[in-house]
């Protein structure tokens, strides 16, 4: 096995080491709660400070991954020279288990940035006297490391271990507030749904392992899965076992994304879990699931020909439309703002999936201007589909975490997450009311916010691919626009209450009078996400260019190593359709 450049996963390694440090200091501080360790190295403030170097490292990995994109290196495996991708790690004769391409590096950066903001929200939500705080922040770091590794996973075993590590930590975090019955219920429901979907996904992986000749690397699995046979040009992809394998794996990943019909856990878990953890699940967990889903769909589950010939493609088309409709329509009737945001997140995943489905066509059929070779090559220009998904996920990070930051601040001081409690918020906190209005406008896709930019790119990709004959994508894009209009109703219902309804009679602490003031941590998070939500469209060109360089191709999924029949040499085969 060739280890590769471990610098590419240094953010994950750093996070694991930092989590251990926080745990050790927490144990020392627990022995002497009034000692110097607790005073100078309190987990409340140490953990967010430790996340800043992780963010810097993740940014450096993006730069490094962009430089390594498309490069190969010769390594010795089994006594022979092998051509392997420079961004590959733990390379075997099948392929690389991890590939830190720019796509993975950017999603890792998004996960780390999201966790840093969640930690700021946690300082306000739990307060100075939080119990088991070192364990709490350490678990957040472990989960973020798992999400970072999941984004780069290019092997079935690596995918399952990273996703399961993230899931197990998430179950504990959802049930973190042991004194709150709703939190325990949320953790239990999340665990039961997650365990069932994890078992289904693992069963699908075992079937895929069998029908592809005992391979686990994405590159090797794709080669055998799509290999032509005497009966069909698609090989195992056209078999009943292959269909079951793909559908079962998609079910497990659909759970992580809360894609209909695997979304039933989301409303109860979002409502019952501590609000910062709800924010964490809405961003970091989804980023990891989306990274694995995109890699799986484009590398393995997208054989030669056209996606329209695949039954699971049409299943995803239907689920994408249902996610947008179900999320927005059910959100209208919610009276709890966390449940409303849960259904909103289901709809947002549907919007992202529109871009992913468009990219399945672009990846195989070349650029959208007509014929020619596939443009999704290392260092090339990425078509709008996947580029839009990356930009949309970045915008979703800002606007969703910003909205949850306001929910943390208001819920902590009013003692309620009911939508009605936001009545008259403009008079009590103009900053929070104005910020929440901007975040909701962005979630609805109203210009000139970040959400508008993301939806413009995602729906634009669907239309550009759709006019080439894929009418279902045009329908999904139109459905997305209609659902964005529907979402304005329930988002701006909260805005109406904040600006035009009389103030809620909730009792505020006497020291705050009639004004609602949050801590410096949560206020900083709100201001930062507000500025970036409005400013992302100003930075549309550089952000879009960076996303376009996060190139994803079949060759980047791992080292596709084959034997040359004439001389026995082994080399890397880059398979461009």
Brief overview:
This protein is mainly alpha-helical and 577 residues long. Helix content is 66%, strand content 5%. The protein has helices at residues 10-31, 36-40, 43-68, 102-126, 133-152, 156-174, 181-211, 218-225, 240-257, 265-272, 275-299, 311-331, 337-365, 384-414, 425-428, 430-444, 450-466, 471-500, 520-535, 540-549; strands spanning 2-4, 72-77, 80-85, 88-91, 96-99, 561-563, 570-572.
List keywords for this structure.
577 residues; mainly alpha; two-stranded antiparallel sheet; 20 helices; 66% helix; 5% strand; globular
Structural account:
The protein has about 575 residues and is mainly alpha-helical. About 65% of the residues lie in helices and about 5% in strands. It is built from 20 helices and seven strands. Strands 1-4-5 form a three-stranded antiparallel sheet. Strands 2-3 form a two-stranded antiparallel sheet. Helix 14 runs antiparallel to helix 16 (about 430-445). The protein is globular. The model is unreliable at about 230-235, about 365-385 and about 550-575 (pLDDT under 50).
């Amino acid at each position: 096995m060739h280890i590769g450049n471990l610098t590419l996963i240094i953010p994950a390694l750093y996070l694991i080491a930092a989590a251990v440090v926080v745990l050790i200091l927490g144990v020392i501080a627990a022995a002497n709660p009034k000692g110097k360790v607790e005073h100078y190295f309190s987990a409340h403030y140490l953990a967010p400070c430790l996340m800043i170097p992780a963010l810097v490292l993740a940014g450096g990995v993006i730069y490094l991954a962009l430089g390594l994109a498309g490069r190969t290196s010769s390594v010795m495996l089994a006594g022979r020279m092998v051509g392997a991708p420079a961004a590959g790690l733990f390379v075997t004769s099948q392929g690389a288990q991890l590939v830190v391409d720019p796509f993975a590096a950017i999603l890792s950066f998004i996960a780390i940035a999201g966790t840093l903001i969640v930690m700021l929200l946690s300082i306000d939500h739990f307060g100075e006297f939080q119990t088991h705080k070192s364990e709490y922040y350490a678990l957040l770091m472990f989960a973020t490391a798992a999400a970072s590794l999941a984004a780069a996973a290019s092997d079935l075993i690596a995918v399952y271990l990273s996703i399961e590590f993230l899931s197990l930590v998430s179950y504990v975090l959802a049930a973190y507030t042991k004194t709150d019955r709703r939190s325990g219920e949320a953790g239990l429901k999340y665990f039961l749904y997650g365990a069932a979907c994890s078992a289904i996904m693992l069963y699908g992986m075992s079937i895929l392992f069998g029908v592809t000749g005992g391979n686990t690397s994405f590159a090797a699995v794709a080669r055998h899965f799509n290999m032509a046979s005497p009966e069909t040009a698609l090989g195992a992809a056209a078999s009943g076992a292959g269909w079951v394998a793909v559908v079962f794996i998609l079910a497990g990943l659909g759970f992580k994304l809360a894609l209909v019909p695997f979304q039933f856990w989301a409303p109860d878990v979002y409502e019952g879990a501590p609000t910062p953890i709800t924010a964490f699940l809405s961003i970091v967990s989804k980023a990891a699931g989306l990274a694995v889903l995109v890699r799986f769909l484009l590398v393995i589950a997208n054989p030669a020909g056209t996606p329209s010939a695949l039954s699971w493609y049409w299943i995803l088309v239907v689920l994408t439309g249902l996610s947008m409709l179900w999320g927005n329509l059910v959100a209208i009737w919610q009276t709890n703002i966390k449940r409303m945001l849960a259904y909103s997140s289901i709809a947002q995943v549907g919007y992202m999936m529109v871009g992913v489905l468009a990219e399945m066509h672009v990846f195989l059929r070349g650029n959208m201007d007509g014929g020619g070779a596939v443009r999704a090559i290392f260092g090339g220009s990425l078509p709008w589909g996947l580029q839009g998904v990356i930009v949309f996920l970045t915008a979703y990070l800002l606007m969703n975490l910003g909205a949850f930051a306001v929910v943390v601040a208001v819920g902590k001081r009013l003692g309620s997450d009911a939508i009605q409690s936001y009545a008259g918020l403009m008079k009590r906190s103009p900053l929070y009311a104005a910020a929440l209005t901007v975040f909701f406008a962005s979630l609805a896709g109203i210009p000139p916010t970040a959400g508008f930019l993301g939806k413009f790119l995602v729906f634009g990709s669907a239309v550009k691919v759709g006019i080439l004959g894929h009418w279902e994508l045009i329908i999904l894009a139109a459905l997305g626009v209609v659902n964005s209009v529907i979402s304005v109703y329930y988002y701006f219902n909260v805005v109406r209450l904040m600006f035009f309804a009389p103030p809620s009679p909730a009792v505020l602490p006497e020291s705050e009078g009639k004004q609602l003031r949050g801590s410096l941590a949560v206020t900083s998070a709100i201001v930062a996400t507000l500025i970036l939500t409005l400013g992302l469209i100003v930075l549309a060109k550089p952000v879009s260019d960076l996303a376009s360089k996060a190139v994803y191709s079949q060759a980047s999924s791992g080292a596709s190593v084959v034997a040359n029949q004439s001389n026995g040499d082994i080399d890397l085969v880059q398979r461009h359709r």
